[in-house]
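Subject: Sanity check before I submit

Could someone independently write out the structure tokens for this chain? I want to compare against mine line by line before I put it in a report. The sequence has 208 residues.
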Amino acid sequence: ISCDKDDSGIIDPSIPFYQSLAVEYNVTQHVTRIGANFNKKDKEGANLRLPEKGILFNGEIPTFLGMGYYMYMLSKPGLIPVTFTFNRWKNQVYTNQVSINDVLPIGIPDTFLTIHNQKMTIINWEGAPIGEDEFIQVHLTYNGGVYDTNIDLEGTRNIAFHFSNLTSATKGILYLSRVKKLPLQESNGNAGGNIQVSYVQNKEIEFK
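---
Independent answer below. Compare away.
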């Protein structure tokens, strides 16, 4: 995803911006990762770069990456509540808040130590089954590759996946996430948007 050449500062204030907001709580690393992206009119609209201080995370100016799903990013130590402050125009300010209490915990069992190569692996996670507007994600990083899969079937208590390691890597880092999709608390006009809040654990895993 790349940034459109539209200058958000000169777009008619009557045109609303779609807000995509995200907070990831990595409880293993004890870090909060915050992201945001803005689109002209609706979800399918052009990606936008806001004027300076157009978006603040807990009063701080985030880093503008200009690429990726969330073009604005900031990482902070701890598992902290987050307030997004979107300054659209002089008197148009929209505030949305997130905390770790907005998503249920998920855990990787202590007994889960290996991922099978070229055959099925099943993770029976610790914590509640998948709830409404939730999904569970497996993200695996290793020397030479990345693997992702997710499941959103409500009531499910495990995730099964078929991993093929075509490298010489013998271990990797498994990230297991519960992601809750929330509505905005304050929308810019009728553009809408969404908030995703994630509870993440990670651990080193061997490949067999």
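---
OP: Matches mine. For the report I'm noting this point. The chain has no helices and 14 strands.
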